[in-house]
Each structure stands twice: as structure tokens, then as C-alpha cells.
Amino acid sequence: MSGEATLLAALAVFTAATVRTAIPLLLAALGEVAAERSGVLHLGIEGSILCGALGAALGARSAGPHFGLLTGACAGLALAGLFVVTSVWLRADPILIGTALNLLAVGVTGALYRETFGIQGAGLTLPTLPARELPLLVDLPIVGPAFFALPLAGYLALALVPISVWFLFHTAHGLAIQACGEAPEAARAAGISVPARRAICTLWGGALAGLAGAYLVLAYVGTFSEKMSAGRGFIAIAIVVLGRWHPVGALIGALLFGGFNALQFLFQALGVAIPYQLLLMVPYAMTLVAMVGALRRSRAPAALGKP
Amino acid sequence: MSIRSRFSSRLSGFFIALGAPFLLAAGVLAWLGYDPRAALAAMLRGTAGSWDAFLSVTLVRACPLLLTGLGVAVAFRAGVFNIGADGQFYLGAIAAAGLGTHAANLGLLGIPLLLLAAAFAGGAWAGVAALLRQRFRVPEVISTLMLNFIAELLVGYAVHGPLMEARGTYPQTDPVPVSARLPHLFPPSRLHAGVLLALLLAPLLWWLIRTTVFGYRLRVAGHNPIAARSAGRFDAGRIQSQAFLLSGALAGLAGGIEVLGLTYALYEKFSPGYGYTAIAVALLARLHPLAVIGSALFFGILEGGASAMQRESGIPAVLVYSVEALLILGVLLSERLLRKEPA
Predict the structure, then answer these.
(1) Contact A90/B139, CB-based, under 8 Å?
(2) Pure H helices in chain A
(3) In whole angstroms, what is the distance from residue A256 CA to residue A69 CA?
(4) Does a structural domain hold residue A126?
(5) Closest to B279 (Cβ–Cβ): which among A96, A101, A235?
């Protein structure tokens, strides 16, 4: 095989790995964009992803992978419901509530997993979502197999990008949500129920995070492991910042995180020896830099994290 | 408010914060078919059933929680949401393990210098977030989260690369030399002198917050940064940055002590989430440095006893994280519902 063919093959593996990592991140980040636009900094999506993963595992085991997507989303939504009751409604501190809910998710999913699948559990294999190839597009070099051979839920995640743009920026509901995040007092004066909008956006964020967890389990690995969310919820929050609170930015940010994660395979294939930990640090460092830039130009919703 | 109603409000607050989570946990265990009383008994036997259990399990586990908990309490008191204690802990551990295994023998000075380096590394890590906050108004919640990830990756890089053991078999550092290890207090037990240091720092911080000008400003800045500027004539942001650094230094010290007193080496996943548990520790103590001692002991029993509970009654130890979460929720909700300011 010629050097060029090797490079092409490595690039195809790289893009496929990028998209694979990016889609769950995109789902969670799109939900967080809506929540943060309404003024809620919801750290609990990390826990929602974890709950979604276990919910999906339980659902898929009893009624197939598509039912698993539903139960996963519901599990993520349920945890976000606790956030709504304690933080949006009773107005306890959102950061601390979010942290507590993440701990709660680790404990509950870990215990439930061992209760239902036994201490070993390692042998657990679940039915996965079938990939649907889009004819013609899938034959495109490099990007074809990466973007156009996804399970349905993957296309749904990509489709949610334009839908979110339309909803947030071109509908009255979307504008009302933004008002809640930018000027809650003014929104209240205009007759908008701020807590209700924030509750709905938080629940939407929780459901999408749950879907992200379900996708992790059902699209590729077909198994659940403890703490498998592994910080993806926090990465999604970083993506929202990097993407400047915009759905398209979230897509770019998710691909960027996915790309740096996939670079290790590309470098391995090309024989470049860079410790992968250093590569993985880059997107986090970029988020810090972006925070500096983002807050100067397009800033966070003015009332983010404030009651 | 009359004494009687204040007492009853304290009592109900105490119940919501502490009693309700445990009753809920017991209810869930009973529903799952376990015996909650047997679970509690196993937990207590494993952590307080004997001197050795108390010294080697409870106190050893409480030590990092006490120091990181103090760090979180100081930051929160100043109105700084430092949720990066885990990363600061890691940096302290890297400093202690890296310098401990590679620096020349420093004699008796060795241990204090290594602990100082650990505290400095933790403080510097918090300093990044403090600088971003002060200069560019980057919210510390997000920056410290990012720094936690970078710190964890840094540990992974260090133990696979420059700090990997000489044999090169496992991703961990060589053990620090005996001269750099903290002495054991009651020899067969694993209790090390780091616990004494942690226990001394709690009253010291209480004194600092309670009686010094810095402490006064810290409390004012935490309460109302704008009032600090207009009434107290000082820059609240500056005080908050200093509190942030102090908080990071305490977490870094915890990491250094964990290496020099307990594990002697550094490896991946070195912290089982101390920095996050620290938030629960500090909140349960209502951010009071002396109360953090009791709170850290309590969490030492909870986390240390969880594995005993799993061994004896088969209840998954991870369930303890849910109890911690319920404790945080209990404290926050009791404060919200009873409208009580933190002491």
C-alpha cells in the first residue's frame, strides 16, 4: 500500500473517531446552550449523562435499543427535575446543587448497576443501535463514513443544531428564553414567567444529556460501566463557552473536542510520539483562553447563575 | 426570635440536614432488601470498632478531607466558588512526589520543604483561576473545572513520562525515600503526622478568619463585595484572590501529605474525588473552620466505613456518594427553608 493510501485510511479513522466522540458531547452541549441562555448554569448535566447511560442500559435490556434511548432521556430528565425543584423553585445555590446531583448520580447509578447486573457485570452486552448509511453521501472520501453512517439518533443530534438556532433566535419562545437569561427583571415585567421558562430549559437540557448518555451506551460500546460519563458533562459546559452560547458554536466545539481526542489515533497511525495526555489538555486550555476572549466580545448571558 | 423558636428552628434545620438523608438512605436500603441497622453497625465497626480502625481508617481518610474542606470553607467564606480543590490536590501531590523522589537528600529540612512546595503548587494552580477571575472576570466555577481536568491529565502524563518509576513497569512514581516520609504516630497503625498538622491548621484558620483584619475583610468581601469597596475601603477582588490562593494551598498541602504520609508514590486516579467531597465537608460545617474538624471526621467514617459495609453486608460502597449528595442537599435546603445565614 502506498504512503498516500495509508494517510487516507488514517484520516478516515480520525474523522470517524472525531464524530463518534463529538455526538454525545453535541447533544449535551445543545441542551446546556438552552439552559444557559435562560440563565441557568446547570452543572448537573454530568449526572444526567450518567443517569441516561444507566437508564438506557436498563431500557435496552428489556425492550431494545430504541426504547433505551427513551428511558435514557427520561433518566436524565428526572435528575434535572431535582435541580428544578431545589434550585429553580426553592432557589438554592445552583452550583452546589449541581455538584450534589452529580455525586447523587454516581452513587445511585453505581448501586443500581450492581443491584441489577451483579458485582461482576463486565459481561453485560446490550443490543446497539443499527447504523443507517445514507446512499451516495456515505461514499464520500474521509467524511462519508464518519458523518453519513450514523444511527438515527446521531442524525437527530446533527439536525437539532439548525432546529435549536431556529427556536432560540427566530421564535417568540426563544426570545423570551433569552430575556430570562439577559434581563430577568425586564422579562418578568413583560409578563414572562422566568422560573417556568428556566425550568423547561433545564429539563430539556437534562433530557438531551440523558440522550447523550444513552448514545454512549447504545451507539457503540453496548455496555454500561460505573462513572462512564467521565466528565463529558463538564466538557459540554466548556463547549458551550467555546461555542459562545450558540448551537452552531456547540457543533464546532464538540467536533474540536472530538478531534483532539481522536488525534492520538492519527498520530499513532503516523508514528508520531506525542503523549496523548498533552493532546487531551489542549481543548481545556483553549476553553480557558476562549473564556477570556468570549467574555470580552460575545459574553455569557448577563444573569447566568443568578436568581 | 425567641430562644425557644430559635432552638426549634436549629433542631429542625439539623434534622433536615443530617437526619433526613440518613432516614432516606435507610429507607432505600430496607426497600432493596438490606438491613439498614446491620449496615450502620458494619460501618461503625470498620471505622470506630477498634483503636486501629479509628486511627488507620477514619483519621487517615479524614486528613485529606479536613485540609481540602478547610480550603473550600475559606474560599466560600470569601465568596469564591473554588470547586477545583481536586486539581489543586493533584498539583500538590505532583510537587511532593516529583521533588521527593528526584531532589537530593535535604535531611531534616526535607519534609517541611516538600510540604511547602506542595502547598505552593496547589496555590499556584488556584492562582491561575484567581488571575483569570480578577483580570478577565472569568467565572471561577468553569475555570477551576477545566483546571481539574488539566491537572488529572498532568498526573497521567507525569507518571507515564518524566516521573515514571525507574523500573518502568507501572504508571506510577518511585516511592519517596524514607527520609521524606511523614513519621507514623502510633506504629502499627497507618496514622501519620500529617493529621496533626491538619488538626493544628483548623484553629489557626478560625483565628485568622475570626480576629485578623484579613479575616474581617474576607468575611465582608464574601457577604457583599460592593459594600466592601464603599464601606470598608478595600478592594474585595484582591482579598478574594488571596483567599483563593490560600484555599488552593490547603488543597495542595493535602495532596503533599497524602503522598508523604500514606501512599509514598503518585499514580493515576490518586484522588477518589476528595475535592468534591470537600464541598460537602465544608457545607456541613457551615463553613466554620473548627466545625470542619467534626465534619471531616464524620465523612471519614462515612467513606472509610463504606468499604467495611460492602464487605460485611454486600451493600455497594458507591452508595455512600448518594448519602453525601443528600447531605449537601439537606444543608442547602434547610438553609433555604429556614432562611438562616451561614454562621
Answers:
(1) no
(2) 3-37, 45-83, 94-117, 143-147, 152-170, 172-182, 184-189, 194-215, 232-242, 247-270, 276-296
(3) 25
(4) no
(5) A96
Residue A185: inside a domain: yes
User: Between helices A172-182 and A3-37, what is the axis angle to 10°?
Assistant: 80
Q: Determine the residue of chain B that is closest to A118 in CA distance.
A: B316
Structural domain boundaries enclosing A75: 3-117+152-296
Helix (H, G, I), strand (E, B) or coil at B330: helix
CATH of the domain at A164: 1.10.3470
The CB density around residue A9, as the number of other CB atoms within 10 Å, is 13
Supply the mean pLDDT for chain B. 86
Inter-chain touch B150–A284, beta carbons under 8 Å: yes
Residue of B332, B337, B340, B341 to mutate when probing chain A, most A C-beta within 10 A: B332
Given a contact cutoff of 8 angstroms between Cβ atoms, the answer to whether B117 and B96 are in contact is: yes
Q: How many domains does chain A have?
A: 1
Determine the pLDDT at residue B341: 47
SS3 content of chain B, % helix, strand, coil (to 5): 75, 0, 25
Chain A with chain B: Cβ pairs closer than 8 A: 134
pLDDT tens-digit readout, B265-279:
999 888 888 998 999
pLDDT tens for A173-213 read 999 999 998 888 888 888 888 899 999 999 999 999 999 99
User: How is residue B338 written as a grid cell?
Assistant: 429556614
Is A85 within a domain?
yes
Q: How far apart are CA B92 and CA B86, in angstroms?
A: 10
If one counts every other C-beta atom within 10 angstroms of the C-beta of residue A142, the result is 15
Cα(A69)–Cα(A56) distance, integer angstroms: 6
Mean pLDDT of B20-39: 82
CA–CA distance, B90 with A290 (Å, rounded to integer): 24
Is the CB of A100 less than 8 angstroms away from the CB of B160?
no
Residue A221 resides in a domain = yes
Q: Is B217 left (phi over 0), alpha (psi -120 to 50) or beta?
A: alpha
Q: Which residues of B fall within a CB distance of 8 Å from A275? A: 157, 160-161
Please check the confidence at residue B217 and state whether its pLDDT lies above 60.
yes
Pull the grid cell for residue A306: 443568578
In the numeric block, which cell numbers belong to residue A52? 441516561
Residue B68: closest CA among B255, B219, B208: B255
Q: Interface pTM (ipTM) of the complex?
A: 0.85
